[in-house]
Amino acid sequence: MANEKYGTPRTSVTAAMLLNPRFQKKNVRLIGTVVKNTSNMVEVNTGDHCNVRVQFQNPLDEPLDGLIDVYGQVLDKNLIEAESYIIVPPHLAENFDLQTHNEAITFIGSSENPWTQGL
Question: Its Gene Ontology molecular function terms (predicted)?
Answer without folding.
Answer: damaged DNA binding; single-stranded DNA binding
